[in-house]
Each structure stands twice: as structure tokens, then as C-alpha cells.
């Protein structure tokens, strides 16, 4: 069967259940992922001092072709974007500034250091998102930054994050699309601390000081990201989910749900409907933990699909920002982007193709038998043909053919590094 016939068959099946396939394709095309720059260089960044990756983050693998500078990293991201259907955004970390070989400490960064990124983003019609970098630095080695008991250390990081938010707002204004600034800090302790309350009190003070500076919501959207534990912060993490959820509520600041930052049996999908009732918007870090917060490349899993379903069922797709967060150095890094981004979009497609209205009718009519039967049946519906149609409309290979283009780039560019 050729693609046209396969798509027509698929569309007919979904439409038979009341799903508007054209509307689904339009909703997908209107959704941008935020592609994280740090997969291309194993979370290294472009600062002059060769800092070790810290903050409990670890990248394993030594696949050849890691991006070594800003030009290589941009080229790699474009190579990835070329095989991802739709229009997307790029997510930067403060340590990826264009510092021109000069030592610029984190409390000295300026919009100018990101002017090259803004020009590049404009040329390629990409939005930019931003992150303060509160790890891989001598002043984060104690394990504490914004929750530190040392006033000097805390002051340094408050200044850094303030500058990052200002840079984000500047990017949003320049590119005429609000920049999502996400704040994640590594703060915590390897072993039992008797100062949980004190550290969290200090973190609250730091956040109050940072967010006392207002930026226009048209340019900047703020988010704070919790975590459960990290390497070296197994016993205590100051920025827990409870802490940030409480701090953010009513303040117009989003919480970020990273799929790797919860207990392995905890459902992140189940959090969505609650959070959406008390927060205007949400940020997702789509990641894949394998036994722990391992940041594996995202795949089309039940977990990711269920998160997408909960967003779609709540009618909240425009209120949720979808960013990717993984780093794998054991496979081709450009392919890693493509695999993770395509899987995330496929999960969203599956969610959008759900015959939710019909399922709700069964539910309201008190017919859980039909509800379960239909939920099971649609699992084997031909969503692949709709995916291929999406790719065709965006001039991107629908099937495994995308890998040929990435392999070509590997031969021409990556292998020569
Ligand atoms: C760390 C957080 C955070 C980082 C990036 C590099 O556990 O997930 O989002 O991965 O900021
Ligand atoms: Zn994250």
C-alpha cells in the first residue's frame, strides 16, 4: 500500500471514532519542542576554565564527534532539526555563551555574550529558551548554591540567576517570542543533614531576592525545577517538588516536571491535572530514567505517552512547554536528538488521536466496559501512517530514512572532528 492509501485508511479509522485528524495534525504542527543544546557536547559548555561536570550530573560514553565550540554545536543542532518535523526552539544554558576565549565569570555574563545565538536563532526562525548554570563551578563545589549557609556564595548565585533572567527577557524581546527561563540548582547533601529547614529557608530567601526583579511576561516565562536526589545529594535535596510547588503557587512562576526526578513508580502524568488547576503554565523536561535519573534518550514509552494524554485530555497543550533533557555520549549525538524529539512528538500524536469525547460519553453513561475496551483497541490503531503524513508535510523522512541523513552528516562532519 502506498502512503496516500495508508494515510486515508488511518484517517478513516480515527474519524470513525470522532477524531478530527486534520485538527490533530494542525495541533501537532503548532507545538514546539525546546531542544536542549547540552546533548551535543555532553553538558560541557564554552567557558574557558575547563570545569568538570558537577552538580551530580554524569554523562557516560565516548562516541566520536562531540561538539567542541559554538559553531559545531549550532551545526549539529541544525542537522538534528532537519529530521524533526515542525518548528522548534533551542534551549541554552548560561555556560554556552559566546565568550570569545575570555574568562567571564557567571556573575558577569551579559546579553552581549548571547548576541550570536540570537542572530543565529533569528536566521533559522527558532525561539530561544534559557537556563542559569548553577553547577560545574568552584562556588558550587560545596554542594550548595542558592541554599548555601555562606552569604558570599549565595550572593554570587543570586546575581548569576538575576542576570540569566535578564538575558532571557532580552532574548524574548529580540526574538518576539517569550523565553522560558528554567532554574535548577544541585543543592543538597550526600548524607543526613540536620539543617533541612535552614537550607530551605535560605533557598526561599534567595528566590524572593531573585524574583523581586520583574520582567514582562511577553518576554520571559519563569520556571523552577525540583529533583528527588542526585549523585552526591542522595540524602537531601533542598529544591524538592513540595518546596517549589509551594513557592511557585500564585506567583506566576511555573514548576518544571523532569520525568527523571521522581520515584520510579510515581506517575508524573497524574500530577498534570492537579498542577494545571493551580498554575497557569507548566514546563516539562522529557527525559528517560533507567533505574535512576540517568538521562537516557527519550523513547516512545507508556510513561511519556500518558503524560501527553493527560495534557491533551485537560485541553492544556497551549499551557504546557515541552523541553527535552537527556544526554547520552554512547551513541551518535545528533541521532540522539532526532530519536528523542521524534519519540516525544509521536507520544503527543498518539495522545491527540485519542477518541476522548467518545470515551467520556461511555464514562458519563456509567459504561466502564466500553471505556476499557475502546482504550485497548485504539492502542493498535495505525497512528504510524498519520506520523508519516506529518513528516511528509514538513519535508522530513517519515520512517527510518532520517538516519541516512544523520549518517551522511556523521561521515562529512562528525567523523572529521
Ligand atoms: C538536572 C536537571 C537539569 C539539567 C540541565 C542541564 O538533574 O534535570 O534540568 O539536566 O539543566
Ligand atoms: Zn531537567
SSE arrangement:
Layout (H helix, E strand, L loop, with lengths): L2 H13 L5 H9 L3 E4 L33 H12 L7 E5 L21 H9 L3 E5 L19 H25 L3 E5 L4 E2 L6 H16 L8 E6 L10 E2 L3 H8 L5 E5 L10 H10 L3 E5 L1 E3 L1 E5 L5 H12 L6 E5 L8 H20 L3 H9 L3 H12 L3 H11 L8 H11 L5
Parallel strand pairs: 1-2, 1-12, 2-3, 3-4, 4-6, 6-8, 8-9, 9-12
Antiparallel strand pairs: 5-7, 10-11
Helix pairs in contact: 1-13, 2-10, 3-10, 5-6, 8-9, 9-10, 11-12
The structure holds L-rhamnitol and zinc ion.
L-rhamnitol binds next to loops.
Relevant terms:
binds zinc ion; globular; 12 strands; single chain; 417 residues; 42% helix; binds L-rhamnitol; eight-stranded parallel barrel; alpha/beta
Helices and strands: which structural class? alpha/beta
* Number of E-state strands: 12
Strand order of the largest sheet: 1-2-3-4-6-8-9-12
The number of distinct helices, counting runs of at least 4 residues, comes to 14
Describe this structure in words.
The protein has 14 helices and twelve strands. The chain is an alpha/beta fold and 417 residues long. The strands form three sheets. An eight-stranded parallel beta barrel has the order 1-2-3-4-6-8-9-12, surrounded by five helices. Strands 5-7 form a two-stranded antiparallel sheet. α1 (3-15) packs across α13 and α8 runs parallel beside α9 (302-313). The radius of gyration is 22 Å and the shape is globular. It binds L-rhamnitol and zinc ion. The site of zinc ion has 5 residues, from loops.
Amino acid at each position: 500500500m502506498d502512503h496516500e492509501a495508508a494515510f486515508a485508511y488511518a484517517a478513516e479509522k480515527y474519524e470513525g471514532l470522532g477524531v478530527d485528524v486534520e485538527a490533530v495534525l494542525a495541533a501537532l504542527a503548532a507545538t514546539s519542542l525546546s531542544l536542549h543544546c547540552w546533548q551535543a557536547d555532553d553538558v560541557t559548555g564554552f567557558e574557558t576554565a575547563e570545569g568538570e561536570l558537577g552538580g551530580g550530573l554524569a554523562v557516560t560514553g565516548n562516541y566520536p564527534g562531540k561538539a567542541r565550540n559554538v559553531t559545531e554545536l549550532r551545526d549539529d543542532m541544525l542537522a538534528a532539526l532537519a529530521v524533526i518535523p515542525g518548528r522548534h526552539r533551542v534551549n541554552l544554558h548560561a555556560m554556552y555563551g559566546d565568550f570569545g576565549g575570555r574568562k567571564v565569570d557567571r556573575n558577569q555574563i551579559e546579553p552581549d555574550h548571547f548576541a550570536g545565538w540570537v542572530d543565529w536563532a533569528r536566521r533559522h526562525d527558532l525561539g530561544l529558551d534559557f537556563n542559569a548554570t548553577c553547577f560545574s563551578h568552584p562556588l558550587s563545589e560545596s554542594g550548595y548554591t542558592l541554599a548555601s549557609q555562606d552569604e558570599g556564595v549565595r550572593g554570587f548565585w543570586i546575581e548569576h540567576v538575576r542576570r540569566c533572567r535578564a538575558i532571557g527577557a532580552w532574548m524574548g524581546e529580540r526574538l518576539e517570542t517569550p523565553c522560558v527561563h528554567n532554574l535548577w540548582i544541585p543543592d543538597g547533601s550526600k548524607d543526613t543533614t540536620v539543617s533541612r529547614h535552614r537550607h530551605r529557608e535560605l533557598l526561599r530567601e534567595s528566590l524572593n531576592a531573585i524574583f523581586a526583579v520583574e520582567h514582562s511576561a511577553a518576554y520571559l516565562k519563569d520556571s523552577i525545577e525540583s529533583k528527588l536526589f542526585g549523585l552526591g545529594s542522595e540524602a537531601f535535596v533542598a529544591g524538592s517538588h513540595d518546596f517549589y510547588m509551594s513557592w511557585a503557587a500564585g506567583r506566576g512562576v511555573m514548576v518544571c516536571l523532569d520525568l527523571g526526578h521522581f520515584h520510579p513508580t510515581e506517575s508524573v502524568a497524574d500530577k498534570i491535572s492537579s498542577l494545571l488547576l493551580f498554575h497557569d503554565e507548566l514546563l516539562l523536561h522529557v527525559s528517560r530514567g533507567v533505574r535512576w535519573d540517568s538521562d537516557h534518550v527519550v523513547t516512545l514509552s507508556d510513561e511519556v505517552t500518558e503524560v501527553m494524554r493527560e495534557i491533551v485530555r485537560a485541553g492544556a497543550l497551549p499551557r504546557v512547554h515541552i523541553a527535552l533533557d537527556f544526554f547520552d555520549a554512547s551513541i551518535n549525538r545528533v541521532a540522539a536528538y532526532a530519536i528523542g524529539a521524534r519519540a516525544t512528538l509521536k507520544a503527543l500524536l498518539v495522545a491527540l488521536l485519542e477518541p476522548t469525547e467518545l470515551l467520556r460519553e461511555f464514562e458519563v453513561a456509567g459504561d466502564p466496559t466500553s471505556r476499557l475496551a475502546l482504550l485497548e483497541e485504539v492502542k493498535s490503531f495505525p497512528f504510524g501512517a498519520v506520523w508519516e503524513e506529518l513528516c511528509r508535510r514538513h519535508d522530513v523522512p517519515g520512517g527510518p530514512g532520517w538516519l541516512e541523513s544523520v549518517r551522511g552528516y556523521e561521515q562529512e562532519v562528525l567523523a572529521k572532528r
